[in-house]
Amino acid sequence: MTPLDNARPTHPEADTARARVSLEIRQELIDNMKVLRAFAISLTRNTSRADDLVQETVLKAWANIHRFEPGTNMRAWLFTILRNSFYSERRKARREVADQDDVLSGQIACKPEHDGHAQLRDFRRAFNMLPAEQREVIVLIGVLQHSYEDAAKMCGVQIGTIKSRLNRGRARLADLMQLDSEEALELTDGATAAVMSANRGTAL
């Protein structure tokens, strides 16, 4: 069972739209749940909250399916709903978490001489230290291969802002992992992809 099974559109136009929704569109929603979950984890850094956020996103999407234009980018639409929900909740909470960069960065090994699993663990910790705005851009562009233009639309900012966040995020990861500049781009995107893959887990 997926969140769609219990969802009910709330907009007056949605009842008619729901009747018109093809099985292909419904399946497309379901097919995007794994990557949606990985994106949610990259923002929340908490699997339980990420699962709640994905369910909330899918329910909102299904309730507003009449707004979706078949043939357009379903994933971008879902990501926009998810990130808007995340940042809306964060603004309401207004809870500031103490910056632990100095403590955690000291615990991340420089050029670790251990196995790949340990390196991935170190990278995950470094990645989680980045601001959410930088994490999401690294995921959207470095891992999911969205264009700067698409990422800017999803995040509701200018392309220059996206490029700046991406560069700062990659630079910070390289600094935390003590990588050479030549290694930084390939390794940070590759490691982020590995973390995303691990985060996908099973479909909701």
UniProtKB/TrEMBL annotation:
* Alphabetical list of InterPro entries matching this protein: RNA_pol_sigma-70-like, RNA_pol_sigma-70_dom, RNA_pol_sigma70_ECF_CS, RNA_pol_sigma70_r2, RNA_pol_sigma70_r4_t2, RNA_pol_sigma_r2, RNA_pol_sigma_r3/r4-like, WH-like_DNA-bd_sf
Q: Which Pfam families match?
A: Sigma70_r2, Sigma70_r4_2
Domain RNA polymerase sigma-70 region, residue spans = 32-95
Q: Which UniProt keywords apply?
A: DNA-binding, Sigma factor, Transcription, Transcription regulation
GO molecular function of the protein, one example? DNA binding
User: RNA polymerase sigma factor 70 region 4 type domain spans which residues?
Assistant: 121-173
What's an example Gene Ontology biological process for this entry? DNA-templated transcription initiation
Task: Give the family, as the similarity comment puts it.
Answer: Belongs to the sigma-70 factor family. ECF subfamily.
Q: What name has this protein been given in UniProt?
A: RNA polymerase sigma factor
